User: Fold this.
Amino acid sequence: MTGLAAEPIAASAPVISVDGLVKTFTVGEVKVRALRGISLDVQRGEFIAVTGPSGSGKSTLMHILGCLDRPTSGRYLLDGQDVSRLSKDALAEVRNQKIGFVFQGFNLLARTTALDNVELPLLYSGSGPRAADRRARAREALTLVGLADRMDHKPNQLSGGQQQRVAIARALITNPTILLADEPTGNLDTRTSVEIMAVFQRLNRERGITILLITHERDIAEYAGRIVTCRDGQIVSDHPVRHRRVAVEELRALPENPL
Amino acid sequence: MTFRIAFKALGRNKLRTGLTTLGMIIGVAAVITLVAMGHGAQSLVEDQIKGAGTNMITVNAGNFTMGGVRLGSGASSSLTADDADAIRAEIPGVQFVAAGTLLRAQVVSGNQNWYTRVQGTDVDLPLIRSWATRTGSFFGTQDVASAAKVAVLGVTVNQQLFGPDADSVGQVIRIRNQPFKVVGVMASKGQGMGEDMDDQILVPYTTVQKKLLGITHVHSITVSAGAASETKRTADAIAILLRTRHKIVPGQEDDFMIRTLEEMADMRTQAMGTMTTLLAGIAGVSLIVGGIGIMNIMLVSVTERTREIGLRMAIGAKSRDVLLQFLVEAVTLSLIGGGMGIAVGFGLAEAMSRWMSWPAKVPPDAVAMAFGFAAATGIFFGFYPAQKAARLDPIEALRFE
Assistant:
């Protein structure tokens, strides 16, 4: 595998370890088997893309991996902790502490500054840091995604790419074990998409942040180090990317977006 | 932390917050103002009673029902001045007694005339009513004994016949074509127990009996007990005495009617209280309407912010956090409304007493009540929307368009 930061415990303790994950939905009389036994290990510091057509179960997998939902059966160890049978409130706490979400639609609070948006997860951590400390961490996170000069801007004053960076900063502020990005480029144009992927690649390379990227776009998946393909609720392929794309290099070749 | 989140959320939509609050403001202000008006009116009555003296007892001739025939007070001719003397002589604890006779007449002075009450009374009346003359003096025992044609005017009568602030002592007025010499003008007393105390002429009761009406009985006897606490006992003693004197056998109804001022006052205060409660109740309805307004806006808000709720849950908000956030938002709305409503209510009450000479007084417990009710409304009407928000599934909420 290429482009991974050196992590001493990587080999011994996977960040995510799922085994025989099954999820069945009951829609009226019909039982829909969204996941039919998925097993997957993600090592610390990995950048992994989960891809597949719609209906392949990748969204359901994302929801379970993101602790938004519980599997019907199977085991899910997150950072060594079994989270497959936790209560709703316990799951909320796990999400707060260990998972950073980046969504397709950014999901920023309107009429709220970038700083306040980024601070939000800290407001929900039980023994949250003090106000001044929260500010400092939010500034740090925004600087990390290259928005040091936009901290007091509100979402409607930011471009799509900038909004998504705010969302990434928000996901990073709690120092999560894993960054979960659900179609993060779905609402963005090509160049902005590459810019966002550049941010992810840099965070992964420089900070060793584990990233799980859900996408149905093959070319976006190729920015990751490993691609897992789902189909009909099962993993049909799982292999490293042979010719990994490097977003920073591609950006040089792409024309600037007209402002 | 929840409070911070809720306040920020409210601050994001100021127009809506303001409009929703308006419902509560109107409701609370209405309750406060109406209660203040009722309270003011009540205290006015109480003041009047204190002014009149709570130890006053009136005996009216006749009863509302006598032998099945319904009659008004004053319809019987069995009450006499001798009864008044007997009350004075035989009942311990009686302080002052004044027999009374009454007619309404057109009084004339020069080219002015005025239709008013001519109250025949005794020398004790100013003492019973603790009522002084403004100019001149009240008539004396000699005048009563000789049925003298002397008159003491109330200020309204004095004003109508002679002009404001005129000193009419020594002037002559005509009642039923008979000349009366004005010996005094009473000080202003205002409204007292349903009648304008200033709009009457006081003359010796004997004069009314002999010179104006040609009767031998009296219409009423006004008595004052030695102390306010003695009033009830004295009134009972008078009833027994009069029944004996009028030879009323047990089982037969009284041919007189005894009222203590306290009773009358109680009745009026009670009526006033009922009125206040009624008005406050009606105003309370507007509070509920305000509450429904809050619920409505909170429901809209929950739907509108479904994605926000989903996001908050995704980044670690528990159901309880979301529930509390929306509950705090609702309660904050109602409390801001309540607080401002109290301020507006105070303003209206103040304006009432200043420009409409209605002594509106805001009772402290009404403020506490209105504020508490506003908070309760917020919790009650905020709970359902908050619960709806808290029960959302984060996955569904995030997908909501």
Summary: The first helix of chain A runs from residue 58 to 65. Residues 130 and 181 of chain A are 28 Å apart (CA to CA).
